[in-house]
Design a protein that fits this description.
There is one protein chain. By secondary structure, the chain is an alpha/beta fold. The protein has two domains: about 150 residues, Aspartate Aminotransferase, domain 1 (Alpha-Beta Complex), CATH 3.90.1150; about 240 residues, 3-Layer(aba) Sandwich (Aspartate Aminotransferase, domain 2), CATH 3.40.640.10. It is built from 13 helices and 13 strands. Helix 1 packs antiparallel against helix 13, helix 7 packs across helix 8 and helix 11 runs parallel beside helix 13. The longest helix has 30 residues. The structure holds 4'-deoxy-4'-aminopyridoxal-5'-phosphate. GO terms for molecular function: L-aspartate:2-oxoglutarate aminotransferase activity.
């Protein structure tokens, strides 16, 4: 790997810019930073917005229908909480269950049960197939890819476009290969590039012929209510579209309150066709007698209703938006006229994607790390941790405070200039 010490300054047009970048980087090293931008976690101030949850449910313990939340029972979760999220997740309340604290766990369980049980419409257990593959729109969410790796599910990358996954590629692949059993989708304010799928993409996903009769769309709507602008972006109703297309069992819908209330201490949701819900419930009943309804009751009392959720999310937005604005402003100031980078401008979610010249992302992350700025490892946005172009960096500005976000992004931009100009100088010979 090239270091700045090994690259001669040169005399070409990039040389002066490289000199400036080296000085800026030396400055950055001198600052002795220790900052972390690795994961899209809510900040402490965001968590404070839900502080009342710690005092709830007080001495209340009965749900609307009289269920005693302290006891076993209500295996599908509290109806009033399911009602509250039914519209946001676009799943009829009777097909939406509220279970556990993590949607990722539900995705994990769906894979396990599909491997060891038989999903509705499947000729056999996925574990008994010669090959099982999933389409992975890239850039994507690293934990989806880790699940596939964990279970030996082959990952086939498909590029994201401004409208969602490249559907020409998706439809071609799923029509031809019966081993392709699923696709990962983060349909709204996608992790990491902030894309919301267009109606045409949703329709195509619902209607496309698949060689596998048991094909599933893992519709991870993790950012359903996480708007950064006044526009409450909506995505097409995948479950309705699949049902209308004669594929009622095609979509598994996931969501959670992890980035609404407390990350890891919220409530997760699963929605799908009646057959799929019965299938998951049947298997889950073996591992759990029922969900934590005290936590669900606490959420009902705290969030109250759909408008309560919207109001709460506006308070998150007030904290998050200035950080996103700062990232975009600093990137424009530091990299805008360099031709070295492009970046996403999301209307919601938790991430910004920074695209640097091919072959530079890992080196930028390494240089930033040397300067005390921890970034998500380059490649994390791709299956097996390998970004073939080595050009994508995920920026997650939610956790550090505003001043730190600015400092971090200025530092990252310095690293982009350093690595980018080194490459240009090397190319100039
Ligand atoms: N899906 C996506 C796309 C996410 O970004 C995250 C959180 N980073 C999760 C799922 C995890 O959600 P949960 O806490 O409900 O498991």
């Amino acid at each position: 790997m090239t270091t700045s010490a090994q690259v001669p300054a040169g005399t070409g047009p990039a040389a002066a810019r490289l000199e400036e970048a080296r000085r800026a980087y030396a400055d950055l090293l001198g600052q002795g930073l220790s900052l972390d931008l690795t994961r899209g976690k809510p900040s402490a101030r965001q968590l404070d917005l839900s502080a009342d949850l710690l005092r709830l449910p007080g001495d209340r313990h009965t749900a609307a229908d009289g269920t005693d939340c302290r006891n076993y029972g209500a295996p599908n979760g509290l109806p009033e909480l399911r009602e509250m999220f039914s519209g946001f997740l676009q799943v009829p309340v009777e097909q939406l269950i509220a279970v556990g604290n993590s949607s990722l766990e539900l995705m994990h369980d769906c894979l396990v049960h599909a491997l060891l049980g038989t999903v509705p419409g499947a000729p056999r257990r996925w574990a008994d197939e010669d090959r099982v593959a999933f389409l992975c729109p890239v850039p994507g969410y690293d934990r989806h890819f880790s699940l596939c790796e964990r279970f030996g599910i082959e990952m086939i990358p498909v590029p994201m476009t401004a409208e969602g996954p490249d559907m020409a590629e998706v439809t071609r692949l799923v029509a031809a290969d019966p081993a392709i059993k699923g696709i990962w989708c983060v349909p709204k304010y996608s992790n990491p590039d902030g894309t919301t799928y267009s109606d045409a993409v949703v329709r195509a996903l619902a209607t496309m012929p698949t060689a596998a009769p048991d094909f599933r769309i893992f519709w991870d709507n993790a950012y359903a209510v996480h708007h950064l602008t006044d526009e409450e972006t909506e995505v097409g109703d995948i479950l309705g579209a699949c049902t209308a297309a004669g594929h009622p069992d095609r979509a598994f819908v996931f969501g959670s309150t992890s980035k609404i209330t407390f990350a890891g201490a919220g409530v997760a949701f699963f929605g799908s066709s009646p057959a799929n819900v019965a299938w998951l419930r049947g298997h889950s009943a073996k591992r759990s007698i029922g969900p934590d309804k005290v936590n669900q009751l606490r959420h009902v009392l705290f969030l109250r209703d759909a408008d309560g959720v919207r109001a709460h999310m506006r308070r998150h937005r007030a904290l998050l938006r200035p950080k996103f604005d700062a990232v975009l402003r600093v990137l424009a100031e530091e990299l805008g006229d360099t031709g070295l980078a492009t970046w996403s401008t999301p209307k919601g979610g938790y991430f910004i994607v920074l695209n640097v010249p091919d072959g530079c992302a890992a080196e930028v992350v390494r240089r930033a790390g040397d300067a005390g700025i921890a970034l998500t490892p380059a490649g994390a946005t791709h299956p097996y941790g390998k970004d073939p172009r080595d050009s994508v960096i995920r920026v997650s500005p939610s956790y550090p405070d505003l001043a730190e976000v600015e400092q971090i992004v200025r530092g990252v931009a310095t690293c982009v200039r350093l690595v980018g100009y080194e490459k240009q100088v090397a190319a100039e010979g």
